[in-house]
Write a structure and sequence with these properties.
By secondary structure, this protein is α/β, with parallel strands linked by helices. It contains 16 helices and 13 strands. The chain has an eight-stranded mixed beta sheet, with helices on one face. A five-stranded parallel beta sheet has the order 11-10-9-12-13, sandwiched between helices. Helix 7 crosses helix 8 and helix 7 runs parallel beside helix 14. It is globular.
Length: about 375
Protein backbone atom coordinates (compact mmCIF):
# COMPACT_ATOMS: atom_id res chain seq x y z
CA UNK A 1 0.00 0.00 0.00
CA UNK A 2 0.94 3.66 -0.26
CA UNK A 3 0.69 6.05 2.68
CA UNK A 4 -0.19 9.66 1.89
CA UNK A 5 0.46 12.43 4.44
CA UNK A 6 -1.21 15.84 4.19
CA UNK A 7 0.31 18.98 5.70
CA UNK A 8 -0.75 22.61 5.48
CA UNK A 9 1.91 24.97 6.83
CA UNK A 10 -0.05 27.27 9.14
CA UNK A 11 2.76 29.10 10.94
CA UNK A 12 6.20 28.76 12.47
CA UNK A 13 7.17 25.41 10.88
CA UNK A 14 5.95 23.14 13.69
CA UNK A 15 3.37 21.44 11.49
CA UNK A 16 5.70 20.73 8.58
CA UNK A 17 8.33 19.67 11.13
CA UNK A 18 6.04 16.95 12.47
CA UNK A 19 4.84 15.88 9.01
CA UNK A 20 8.40 15.63 7.67
CA UNK A 21 9.60 13.71 10.73
CA UNK A 22 6.65 11.36 10.37
CA UNK A 23 7.27 10.78 6.66
CA UNK A 24 10.93 9.94 7.25
CA UNK A 25 10.00 7.64 10.13
CA UNK A 26 7.56 5.70 7.94
CA UNK A 27 10.35 5.28 5.39
CA UNK A 28 12.55 3.88 8.17
CA UNK A 29 9.80 1.42 9.02
CA UNK A 30 9.45 0.26 5.40
CA UNK A 31 12.98 -1.12 5.69
CA UNK A 32 12.07 -3.33 8.63
CA UNK A 33 9.82 -6.33 9.10
CA UNK A 34 6.50 -4.71 9.92
CA UNK A 35 2.88 -5.91 10.01
CA UNK A 36 1.91 -3.56 7.17
CA UNK A 37 3.88 -3.35 3.94
CA UNK A 38 4.29 0.29 2.84
CA UNK A 39 5.40 0.60 -0.77
CA UNK A 40 5.61 4.40 -0.92
CA UNK A 41 5.32 7.36 1.44
CA UNK A 42 3.76 10.45 -0.14
CA UNK A 43 3.90 13.90 1.47
CA UNK A 44 1.56 16.56 0.08
CA UNK A 45 2.55 20.02 1.31
CA UNK A 46 0.93 23.43 1.05
CA UNK A 47 3.96 25.58 1.78
CA UNK A 48 6.98 24.22 -0.07
CA UNK A 49 8.92 27.44 0.57
CA UNK A 50 8.62 26.99 4.36
CA UNK A 51 9.46 23.31 3.99
CA UNK A 52 12.76 24.22 2.30
CA UNK A 53 13.87 26.10 5.42
CA UNK A 54 14.04 22.87 7.41
CA UNK A 55 15.16 20.64 4.52
CA UNK A 56 17.48 22.40 2.10
CA UNK A 57 17.36 19.62 -0.48
CA UNK A 58 13.77 20.62 -1.26
CA UNK A 59 13.35 22.39 -4.62
CA UNK A 60 10.45 24.79 -4.16
CA UNK A 61 9.94 25.12 -7.93
CA UNK A 62 9.01 21.46 -8.45
CA UNK A 63 5.52 19.98 -8.36
CA UNK A 64 7.01 16.57 -7.56
CA UNK A 65 10.32 15.43 -6.09
CA UNK A 66 11.75 12.53 -4.13
CA UNK A 67 13.67 13.51 -0.99
CA UNK A 68 15.02 10.94 1.48
CA UNK A 69 12.83 8.34 -0.29
CA UNK A 70 9.71 10.42 0.42
CA UNK A 71 7.61 11.45 -2.60
CA UNK A 72 6.87 15.16 -2.09
CA UNK A 73 3.99 16.85 -3.96
CA UNK A 74 2.85 20.45 -4.19
CA UNK A 75 -0.62 20.63 -2.64
CA UNK A 76 -1.61 23.50 -4.98
CA UNK A 77 -0.81 21.82 -8.32
CA UNK A 78 -4.39 20.75 -9.05
CA UNK A 79 -4.03 19.28 -12.55
CA UNK A 80 -0.86 17.27 -11.93
CA UNK A 81 -1.99 15.87 -8.58
CA UNK A 82 -5.52 15.08 -9.72
CA UNK A 83 -4.31 13.19 -12.77
CA UNK A 84 -1.78 11.16 -10.78
CA UNK A 85 -3.75 10.41 -7.61
CA UNK A 86 -7.01 9.55 -9.40
CA UNK A 87 -5.40 6.65 -11.28
CA UNK A 88 -6.23 3.02 -10.43
CA UNK A 89 -9.33 3.90 -8.44
CA UNK A 90 -7.36 6.24 -6.20
CA UNK A 91 -4.81 3.62 -5.21
CA UNK A 92 -2.43 6.23 -3.78
CA UNK A 93 -5.17 7.37 -1.40
CA UNK A 94 -5.94 4.07 0.33
CA UNK A 95 -4.53 5.43 3.58
CA UNK A 96 -4.34 9.16 4.25
CA UNK A 97 -2.82 10.84 7.29
CA UNK A 98 -4.33 14.29 7.73
CA UNK A 99 -2.15 16.42 10.01
CA UNK A 100 -3.66 18.96 12.40
CA UNK A 101 -7.12 19.32 10.85
CA UNK A 102 -5.50 20.70 7.70
CA UNK A 103 -8.34 19.61 5.45
CA UNK A 104 -7.73 18.22 1.98
CA UNK A 105 -6.79 19.79 -1.37
CA UNK A 106 -9.65 20.50 -3.77
CA UNK A 107 -8.35 17.90 -6.23
CA UNK A 108 -8.40 15.27 -3.48
CA UNK A 109 -11.94 16.19 -2.45
CA UNK A 110 -13.02 15.59 -6.05
CA UNK A 111 -11.38 12.17 -6.12
CA UNK A 112 -12.82 11.11 -2.76
CA UNK A 113 -16.35 12.43 -3.02
CA UNK A 114 -17.20 13.11 -6.68
CA UNK A 115 -15.43 10.36 -8.61
CA UNK A 116 -17.28 7.59 -6.77
CA UNK A 117 -14.33 5.41 -5.83
CA UNK A 118 -14.97 1.70 -5.51
CA UNK A 119 -12.27 1.22 -2.87
CA UNK A 120 -12.64 2.29 0.76
CA UNK A 121 -10.35 5.14 1.78
CA UNK A 122 -9.12 5.35 5.38
CA UNK A 123 -8.15 8.72 6.88
CA UNK A 124 -6.23 9.02 10.14
CA UNK A 125 -6.50 12.52 11.58
CA UNK A 126 -3.39 13.41 13.61
CA UNK A 127 -4.26 16.20 16.03
CA UNK A 128 -2.03 18.66 17.87
CA UNK A 129 0.09 17.33 20.70
CA UNK A 130 -1.43 17.99 24.11
CA UNK A 131 -1.31 16.58 27.61
CA UNK A 132 -4.98 17.47 28.18
CA UNK A 133 -7.39 14.65 29.01
CA UNK A 134 -9.24 14.96 25.74
CA UNK A 135 -6.25 13.42 23.92
CA UNK A 136 -7.08 10.10 25.58
CA UNK A 137 -10.83 10.55 25.10
CA UNK A 138 -10.56 11.28 21.36
CA UNK A 139 -7.87 8.70 20.54
CA UNK A 140 -9.17 6.20 17.94
CA UNK A 141 -12.57 7.88 17.90
CA UNK A 142 -14.39 7.67 14.56
CA UNK A 143 -15.51 10.81 12.69
CA UNK A 144 -18.22 11.19 10.06
CA UNK A 145 -17.48 12.05 6.43
CA UNK A 146 -19.71 12.67 3.42
CA UNK A 147 -19.29 9.13 2.10
CA UNK A 148 -19.42 5.65 3.58
CA UNK A 149 -16.43 4.85 1.36
CA UNK A 150 -14.32 7.43 3.21
CA UNK A 151 -13.75 6.38 6.82
CA UNK A 152 -12.02 8.74 9.24
CA UNK A 153 -10.62 8.17 12.72
CA UNK A 154 -8.78 10.43 15.17
CA UNK A 155 -5.30 9.30 16.15
CA UNK A 156 -3.93 11.41 18.97
CA UNK A 157 -0.24 11.85 19.74
CA UNK A 158 0.34 12.24 23.44
CA UNK A 159 2.15 11.49 26.67
CA UNK A 160 0.38 8.36 27.92
CA UNK A 161 -0.22 4.79 26.80
CA UNK A 162 -3.84 5.73 26.14
CA UNK A 163 -2.68 7.88 23.20
CA UNK A 164 -0.57 7.22 20.12
CA UNK A 165 2.65 8.43 21.77
CA UNK A 166 5.39 10.49 20.11
CA UNK A 167 7.45 9.96 16.95
CA UNK A 168 10.55 8.05 18.01
CA UNK A 169 13.00 7.49 15.16
CA UNK A 170 15.94 5.12 15.41
CA UNK A 171 18.31 7.87 16.59
CA UNK A 172 15.87 8.78 19.39
CA UNK A 173 15.52 5.25 20.80
CA UNK A 174 18.01 6.02 23.56
CA UNK A 175 18.42 9.09 25.74
CA UNK A 176 21.84 10.60 25.02
CA UNK A 177 24.33 11.46 27.71
CA UNK A 178 23.71 14.98 28.99
CA UNK A 179 26.21 17.73 28.20
CA UNK A 180 26.05 19.91 31.37
CA UNK A 181 28.42 22.46 29.84
CA UNK A 182 26.56 22.69 26.56
CA UNK A 183 24.87 25.80 25.15
CA UNK A 184 21.38 27.09 25.99
CA UNK A 185 18.91 27.04 23.13
CA UNK A 186 16.16 29.64 22.78
CA UNK A 187 13.48 28.77 20.24
CA UNK A 188 10.48 30.73 21.43
CA UNK A 189 7.57 32.98 20.59
CA UNK A 190 7.92 36.75 21.09
CA UNK A 191 8.37 37.46 24.80
CA UNK A 192 10.28 39.72 27.17
CA UNK A 193 13.09 37.45 28.36
CA UNK A 194 14.90 40.04 30.49
CA UNK A 195 14.93 38.06 33.76
CA UNK A 196 15.97 34.83 32.04
CA UNK A 197 18.69 36.63 30.08
CA UNK A 198 20.14 38.27 33.19
CA UNK A 199 20.16 34.94 34.99
CA UNK A 200 22.04 33.04 32.28
CA UNK A 201 24.52 35.86 31.66
CA UNK A 202 25.39 36.35 35.33
CA UNK A 203 25.09 32.78 36.61
CA UNK A 204 26.81 30.92 33.78
CA UNK A 205 29.40 31.22 31.05
CA UNK A 206 27.32 29.18 28.63
CA UNK A 207 26.87 29.98 24.97
CA UNK A 208 23.40 31.31 24.09
CA UNK A 209 21.89 30.04 20.84
CA UNK A 210 19.00 32.16 19.54
CA UNK A 211 17.16 30.24 16.83
CA UNK A 212 15.82 32.06 13.81
CA UNK A 213 12.07 32.51 13.61
CA UNK A 214 9.25 34.60 15.01
CA UNK A 215 10.77 34.88 18.50
CA UNK A 216 14.37 35.69 17.57
CA UNK A 217 14.16 39.48 17.88
CA UNK A 218 12.63 39.35 21.35
CA UNK A 219 15.37 36.99 22.57
CA UNK A 220 18.04 39.22 21.04
CA UNK A 221 16.49 42.34 22.58
CA UNK A 222 16.56 40.81 26.06
CA UNK A 223 20.22 39.83 25.77
CA UNK A 224 21.22 43.01 23.93
CA UNK A 225 22.16 45.05 26.99
CA UNK A 226 24.83 42.46 27.75
CA UNK A 227 26.27 42.29 24.22
CA UNK A 228 28.59 45.22 24.92
CA UNK A 229 30.32 43.18 27.61
CA UNK A 230 33.46 41.54 26.11
CA UNK A 231 33.05 38.32 28.05
CA UNK A 232 29.49 37.83 26.78
CA UNK A 233 29.34 39.21 23.24
CA UNK A 234 31.16 36.17 21.83
CA UNK A 235 28.74 33.83 23.63
CA UNK A 236 25.59 35.00 21.85
CA UNK A 237 24.96 33.31 18.53
CA UNK A 238 22.15 33.66 16.00
CA UNK A 239 21.20 30.22 14.67
CA UNK A 240 19.91 30.25 11.12
CA UNK A 241 17.44 27.70 9.77
CA UNK A 242 18.93 24.24 9.33
CA UNK A 243 17.90 20.76 8.29
CA UNK A 244 15.83 18.85 10.82
CA UNK A 245 18.58 16.28 11.39
CA UNK A 246 21.06 19.07 12.16
CA UNK A 247 18.52 20.69 14.48
CA UNK A 248 18.17 17.45 16.42
CA UNK A 249 21.94 17.17 16.88
CA UNK A 250 22.12 20.81 17.99
CA UNK A 251 19.31 20.39 20.51
CA UNK A 252 20.75 17.22 21.99
CA UNK A 253 24.08 18.94 22.71
CA UNK A 254 22.46 21.65 24.86
CA UNK A 255 22.43 21.90 28.65
CA UNK A 256 19.10 23.79 28.86
CA UNK A 257 16.26 24.39 26.42
CA UNK A 258 13.64 27.14 26.10
CA UNK A 259 11.41 25.66 23.48
CA UNK A 260 8.17 26.15 21.59
CA UNK A 261 6.27 24.46 18.80
CA UNK A 262 4.81 21.03 18.16
CA UNK A 263 7.88 19.23 16.84
CA UNK A 264 10.49 20.86 19.09
CA UNK A 265 8.39 20.29 22.21
CA UNK A 266 8.27 16.56 21.50
CA UNK A 267 12.05 16.51 20.97
CA UNK A 268 12.63 18.37 24.24
CA UNK A 269 10.45 15.88 26.11
CA UNK A 270 12.40 12.95 24.66
CA UNK A 271 15.81 14.55 25.18
CA UNK A 272 16.06 14.29 28.97
CA UNK A 273 17.45 17.85 28.98
CA UNK A 274 15.99 20.37 31.47
CA UNK A 275 13.65 22.53 29.42
CA UNK A 276 11.04 25.25 29.69
CA UNK A 277 8.09 25.08 27.32
CA UNK A 278 6.91 28.41 25.91
CA UNK A 279 3.36 27.71 24.75
CA UNK A 280 1.55 29.65 22.04
CA UNK A 281 -0.35 32.52 23.70
CA UNK A 282 -4.14 32.16 23.48
CA UNK A 283 -7.04 34.35 24.56
CA UNK A 284 -7.65 34.61 28.31
CA UNK A 285 -4.30 32.88 28.90
CA UNK A 286 -5.76 29.52 27.89
CA UNK A 287 -2.22 28.35 27.13
CA UNK A 288 -1.84 27.96 30.90
CA UNK A 289 -4.37 25.10 30.81
CA UNK A 290 -2.14 23.26 28.36
CA UNK A 291 1.00 24.03 30.34
CA UNK A 292 -0.56 22.85 33.60
CA UNK A 293 -1.70 19.61 31.95
CA UNK A 294 1.86 18.76 30.89
CA UNK A 295 3.24 19.79 34.27
CA UNK A 296 0.84 17.39 36.01
CA UNK A 297 2.19 14.50 33.94
CA UNK A 298 5.77 15.50 34.77
CA UNK A 299 5.21 16.13 38.50
CA UNK A 300 5.83 12.56 39.68
CA UNK A 301 9.37 12.50 38.30
CA UNK A 302 10.68 15.22 40.63
CA UNK A 303 11.07 15.87 44.32
CA UNK A 304 8.60 18.42 45.64
CA UNK A 305 11.10 21.28 46.05
CA UNK A 306 12.56 20.60 42.59
CA UNK A 307 9.19 20.59 40.91
CA UNK A 308 8.12 23.84 42.57
CA UNK A 309 10.94 25.61 40.71
CA UNK A 310 9.92 24.09 37.35
CA UNK A 311 6.21 24.68 37.87
CA UNK A 312 6.50 28.28 39.04
CA UNK A 313 8.99 29.18 36.30
CA UNK A 314 6.85 27.63 33.54
CA UNK A 315 3.66 29.29 34.77
CA UNK A 316 5.20 32.75 35.14
CA UNK A 317 6.86 32.59 31.73
CA UNK A 318 3.64 31.45 30.10
CA UNK A 319 1.51 34.23 31.52
CA UNK A 320 1.04 36.98 28.96
CA UNK A 321 3.60 39.73 29.57
CA UNK A 322 1.03 42.34 30.53
CA UNK A 323 -1.71 40.06 31.81
CA UNK A 324 -0.84 38.19 34.97
CA UNK A 325 -3.03 36.42 37.45
CA UNK A 326 -1.27 38.17 40.30
CA UNK A 327 -1.33 41.80 41.36
CA UNK A 328 2.28 42.47 40.44
CA UNK A 329 3.73 44.73 37.78
CA UNK A 330 6.06 43.57 35.05
CA UNK A 331 9.28 44.43 36.92
CA UNK A 332 8.22 42.39 39.93
CA UNK A 333 7.32 39.49 37.68
CA UNK A 334 10.62 39.84 35.86
CA UNK A 335 12.60 39.65 39.11
CA UNK A 336 10.61 36.63 40.23
CA UNK A 337 11.40 34.91 36.93
CA UNK A 338 15.10 35.72 37.43
CA UNK A 339 15.09 34.20 40.91
CA UNK A 340 13.36 31.05 39.66
CA UNK A 341 15.70 30.83 36.69
CA UNK A 342 18.69 31.13 39.04
CA UNK A 343 17.36 28.10 40.93
CA UNK A 344 16.64 26.29 37.66
CA UNK A 345 20.28 26.74 36.64
CA UNK A 346 21.73 25.88 40.06
CA UNK A 347 19.71 22.66 40.24
CA UNK A 348 20.28 21.71 36.61
CA UNK A 349 22.07 18.44 37.31
CA UNK A 350 19.46 17.29 39.82
CA UNK A 351 16.57 18.37 37.59
CA UNK A 352 18.08 16.45 34.69
CA UNK A 353 17.50 13.22 36.62
CA UNK A 354 13.73 13.85 36.65
CA UNK A 355 13.65 15.02 33.04
CA UNK A 356 15.46 11.83 32.00
CA UNK A 357 13.00 9.63 33.91
CA UNK A 358 10.15 11.44 32.15
CA UNK A 359 11.85 10.92 28.77
CA UNK A 360 12.41 7.23 29.47
CA UNK A 361 8.77 6.63 30.35
CA UNK A 362 7.63 8.37 27.15
CA UNK A 363 9.53 5.74 25.18
CA UNK A 364 7.47 3.03 26.87
CA UNK A 365 4.38 4.36 25.07
CA UNK A 366 5.91 3.31 21.76
CA UNK A 367 6.59 5.16 18.54
CA UNK A 368 3.61 7.03 17.05
CA UNK A 369 4.32 5.76 13.52
CA UNK A 370 4.75 2.14 14.62
CA UNK A 371 1.54 2.46 16.64
CA UNK A 372 -0.23 3.75 13.51
CA UNK A 373 0.96 0.74 11.50
CA UNK A 374 -0.21 -1.67 14.21
CA UNK A 375 -3.59 0.09 14.28
CA UNK A 376 -3.92 -0.11 10.49
CA UNK A 377 -3.27 -3.86 10.51
CA UNK A 378 -5.64 -4.58 13.36
CA UNK A 379 -8.44 -2.29 12.27
CA UNK A 380 -8.40 -2.51 8.51
CA UNK A 381 -6.50 -5.57 7.38
CA UNK A 382 -7.32 -8.35 9.84
CA UNK A 383 -10.87 -7.18 10.47
Amino acid sequence: MELTILCKVIDNFGDIGVAWRMAKRFVELTKKDNPVKIEKVNLIVDGIFSFKKIENSIDNTQKFQSVNDVCVYDWNDYDFCYQLFSQNDGNKLSFIIECFQCGRPDWMEKILFEDKLQRTVHILMIDYLTAEKYAEDFHKLMSLTRSAKVQKVNFMPGFSNKTGGLIIENKWKRIPKRNPDGPVLFFTYPKKWDGVAESFVKKTNKQILAANGIGFESVKNSFEIFLSEPDFSSRFKNMDFCNQSEWDNLLLNCSFLFIRGEDSLSRACLSGIPFVWHAYVQSEDYQLVKVKALLEIMRKYFKKNQFEVIENLWLLINQSDFQTNQNIDFEEKNQKIKQLCDSFIERGDDLAVGYRKFAQDLRKNGDLCQNIMTFIKKKYIIE
